[in-house]
Design a protein that fits this description.
Elements (H helix, E strand, L loop, with lengths): L1 H8 L3 H12 L19 E5 L2 E4 H19 L3 H4 L5 H21 L6 H9 L14 H12 L3 H23 L5 H12 L1 E9 L12 H10 L5 E2 L2 E10 H7 L4 H10 L5 E2 L2 E10 L6 H19 L4 H8 L3 H4 L4 E6 L5 H8 L6 E7 L2 E11 L2 E2 L2 H35 L4 H8 L5 E5 L3 E2 L12 H7 L6 E7 L2 E11 L2 E2 L2 H33 L4 H8 L4 E7 L11 H7 L7 E6 L5 E10 L3 H33 L3 E3 L1 H6 L6
Antiparallel strand pairs: 1-2, 1-20, 3-17, 3-19, 4-16, 5-12, 5-13, 5-15, 6-11, 7-8, 7-10, 9-10, 14-15, 18-19
Helix pairs in contact: 1-8, 3-5, 5-8, 5-23, 8-23, 9-23, 10-20, 11-17, 12-17
Length: 650
């Protein structure tokens, strides 16, 4: 998003920098409005190669993204926020940004200190009314107050944004768009037609088009290349299922009790509180007047709450925390460490039923009602018995699956079974083992049901038919496999594809019959017959597509290139067709109205349209390059952090 914005505005540096400033403004992210701590853990939220993004950096950027959406959608944002994966988009932003920077460095792009200095001096945020620089001290105060970072960090971020802009500008210069492409795009945007359509599907005509063997063989010879395939292979494999072993392995009650006694710290539950709150939000950059107004409102709401008013109703009316206001301010049960310190200290120092506050935090003023506490306690064995059982059996099942797979490997090497029946007989000896056969797979494709990467595919393509492999760990357990089939590259023989060829011949015959009927319908329509009557005769209805544009779908029929080719070279009132509509059969179309692009307008807009097309093409080229780079870059994401803010959990 940042790259595209910079690209579109690269020639207007002053405005770019103003936008960069706006992007950096830190506002409170609503999901922390309940007082939850903003993160800052030691682990990386995202790591791209050797570059680590801290949890605090991640959360700060997510707040900025939230604010940008709020500016775009206005009040609607509160209604749709819970459906948007802000955390996932934030992770993608950091990944894309780092890949862009890596690409820029790889090709030698730099932002010298003089260029960075010029950018800062040209930034309206750092200028007095007359345009002169505000001075070093004021500059530092602005950066710290509005961007919440040191000048060194701000300037590094700004230099990176400028370098990304250079990268995209370079991509644009290599993405030339011809005059013909510009004209096609101009007409695609401006040509508009109102259409009336009669559809003739081919299926009703299938009965009149049986395929003889001679026709099928002739069709196969004419189009044999369409039946060519790459080399494909298939494996059969025995799977020792860990899930089945977890159910089958015996566990003594004493063993469960012993595990519980040795791991009691795993089943400790700390003190928890249940509370509701009303948040009066205060922006990080609020002035003293705004701060005083928010505090006055918070004091008034707190006084009403203490007078005995319904707290849930007050929250629904006054709270500015969308995450809890609709639930009457209810925050549920939470342990220490889940909320910001000011909020947490106030809650855990209060008594059940007490109204606390207003309490000031980084998010604003909180009025809190504490509903109850759960003391820290050891969860009893009876309560966690199933967790204990899973923990005990999980490790044992994994080891047992590996051991049984090793035994199966030795058994297969000794017995040398070659048929599915022989393999099934071995599988039947152990109820935790199942026999599977993979679908045909090509080189470079993962094998469904096994490992998610192509490592097993590579082994299978290096093996001979009948060769054994494994044991190999897969998500469901362990497997031992054998290469069962090899289908060499080349055109598949007629007998193998006979059914496909016969079906294609029948379809072609049916399409020809549909086209023949379409010509009759088109002639009758041109002669003045009512299209509604013709539609009823065909067992369908007249389809109307208003404001149809090039390269868009034709009503509910999908994209039909032949319609565009015919309609936009016809005249208003013309009836064209029958036109091939792919798997939909054929269509006959009346051009009810037609508005074509003005050539004079093309001359006026040619260069601006060319620039937009070049930018789009440059973006695609750059994206393809970054995708290649991404495949070669180790990327890790803190999925627990993403899950914490995922739409499903909000």
């Amino acid at each position: 998003m940042a790259l595209k914005w910079l690209r579109d505005n690269l020639r207007h540096l002053k405005f770019i920098l103003w936008g960069v400033v706006a992007v950096f403004v830190l506002l409170v992210f609503v999901d922390w409005g309940a007082g939850r701590a903003g993160g800052g853990g030691a682990g990386a939220a995202v790591q791209i190669g050797t570059t680590k993004v801290s949890e605090q950096e991640f959360l700060d950027e997510m707040r900025r993204l939230d604010q940008r959406f709020a500016q775009i959608y206005g009040e609607r944002w509160n209604d749709i926020r819970a459906q948007v994966d802000l955390a996932g988009q934030t992770a993608s932003y950091f990944i894309d940004r780092e890949l862009q920077l890596a690409e820029a460095r790889r090709i030698g792009l730099k932002v010298p200190p003089s260029e960075l200095r010029e950018a800062i001096l040209a930034n309206p945020s750092f200028q007095r009314e007359g345009g002169e620089f505000v001075g070093s001290e004021t500059y530092e105060r602005i950066v710290r107050a509005y961007f919440r970072m040191s000048t060194q960090a701000f300037e590094q971020r700004l230099a990176e944004d400028l370098m990304i802009g250079k990268l995209n500008a370079l991509a644009e210069r290599t993405a030339w768009v011809s005059d013909g492409e510009v004209e096609r795009e101009y007409r695609r945007q401006r040509d508009v037609a109102d259409l009336e359509i009669l559809q003739l599907r081919y299926e009703p005509f299938l009965a009149g088009g049986a395929a003889t063997e001679a026709e099928a063989r002739a069709a196969y010879e004419r189009d044999s290349e369409s039946y060519r395939r790459d080399e494909q292979r298939a494996i059969r494999y025995l799977l020792v299922e860990s899930a089945k072993l977890r159910r089958l392995l015996p566990v003594e009650a004493a063993e469960l009790r012993a595990y519980y006694d040795e791991h009691k710290d795993e089943f400790l539950e700390g003190e928890q509180a249940n509370a509701r709150h009303i948040l009066i939000r205060v922006a990080p950059d609020a002035d003293q007047v705004a701060l005083a107004e928010a505090e006055l409102l918070a004091n008034g709401v707190a006084q009403i709450a203490r007078s005995g008013a319904d707290f849930a109703e007050l929250a629904a009316k006054h709270s500015q925390d969308p995450g809890s206001k609709d639930g009457g301010g209810d925050l549920g049960w939470f342990a220490r460490g889940r909320m910001v310190k000011e909020f947490e200290d106030a809650v855990f120092a209060a008594k059940p039923g007490e109204i606390v506050g207003p309490i000031r935090s980084q998010f604003g003023f909180h009025i809190i009602r504490v509903d109850g506490f759960r003391p820290a306690h050891q969860r009893p064995f009876e309560e966690v018995e199933e967790q204990v059982r899973f923990a005990v059996v999980e490790g044992r099942a994994a080891a047992e699956a590996e051991a049984r797979a090793a035994a199966l490997s030795r058994r297969l090497a000794s017995a040398k079974p070659q048929t599915d029946e022989e393999w099934q007989a071995i599988a039947d000896e152990d109820e935790a083992v199942v026999l599977n056969r993979s679908p045909l797979f090509s080189a470079g494709q993962p094998i469904p049901g096994t490992v998610p990467d192509t490592s097993l595919t590579t082994e299978a393509f290096a093996a001979e038919v009948g060769a054994l492999g494994g044991p190999l760990a897969v998500p469901r357990g362990w497997i031992v496999w054998q290469l069962a089939e090899v289908h060499p590259e080349g055109v598949r023989p007629f007998e193998e594809v006979r059914a496909e060829v016969e079906q294609a011949v029948r379809r072609d015959k049916a399409l020809a019959l549909a086209a023949e009927r379409g010509r009759e319908i088109a002639a009758r329509w041109r002669a003045g017959e009512d299209p509604a009557v013709l539609a009823a005769e065909l067992g369908t209805t007249l389809i109307v597509d208003s404001d149809h544009r090039r390269d868009t779908t034709v009503s509910s029929l999908g994209a039909i290139p032949a319609v565009d080719d015919a309609v936009f070279t016809a005249a208003a009132g013309d009836i064209v067709g029958p036109l091939p509509a792919g798997a939909r059969g054929v269509v006959v179309v009346r051009v009810a109205d037609l508005q074509l692009a003005d050539p004079a307008g093309l001359a006026a807009e040619r260069e601006s349209l060319r620039a937009r097309l070049m930018a789009a093409r440059a973006g695609r080229l750059l994206r393809a390059s970054l995708n290649e780079q991404r495949r070669d870059t180790e990327i890790t994401i803190d999925n627990e952090l993403l899950q914490r803010f995922s739409p499903a959990s909000s």
